[in-house]
Amino acid sequence: MKHDKYLSGLALMLGSALLFSTAGIFTKAVAASGWEVIFWRALFSAMLTAGLLLWRGRWAPEVTRMGRSGLLAAVIGASGTAAFLSAFKLTGVANVALIYSATPMVAALLAWVILREAPGIKMLAGAALGILGILVILAGSLGEINLLGDLLALVMALALALLFVLYRARPETPSIGPTLLSCLFLLPIALLFSDPRQTPLVEIGVMACFGLVFAAASVLMFEAAKRLPSGQAGLISNTETPFAILLAWVILGELPVTATVIGGTLVLIGVVLGSLPRRRAQRGRTPSMT
Question: What is the pLDDT of residue 281?
Fold first, then answer.
């Protein structure tokens, strides 16, 4: 049963990572400002998520009874989303993806301190490879990094790490309701800093698709976080990094340099290594995951 739970969590997190990796493509595909993108993405995500809740008859347990943990998840999620989308307007997709990949290390540290959840040897080894990969890529593109964009990407990494720990500690916390609430939090803030009415209709259509993809990715991520150790959930989500770099290369023409290819490979190897379960323990002990 535990193994099945782990495998389902692994599949959900990989699917979430793939969907999240399209964020840079959607954001850079439009000329709208960062706050315009945030507004329209939040609006369509909120509409789609609310429709899903009503269709499934889950409004009460997901929204009205989400509790303090659900409210906290919504606040953290809104903060991270605003920082994440804004970062793409200020720096390259590869830079955002690579800095964002620090999430596993942050999640493992927070889980260790808050939940007393010691990371396994394989997770630590995978995280070390991930760090090495990040250093290799940054070493090849230091001159192109925009400081503000990088700092915003770090804010997103911290926010996601906090969400992993929150859902691990409070698995009863609903996932869809907080996603809806985080979108609603962003709407009035985005209106303060932009005028979404000036956005071209075509670009609004692009961001409507973005809203659908983002909502689906968020739900998959939160459901996966309930099934995986916090540090490992963050590590597996790191597959978003090579996905994002590949999409930026193919669609946006942002060609990765040699250091990016080498570093991205190390990150991917680290993710695979860190997601491997421990061997079955001897003397009848219950198997556990790293």
Answer: 42
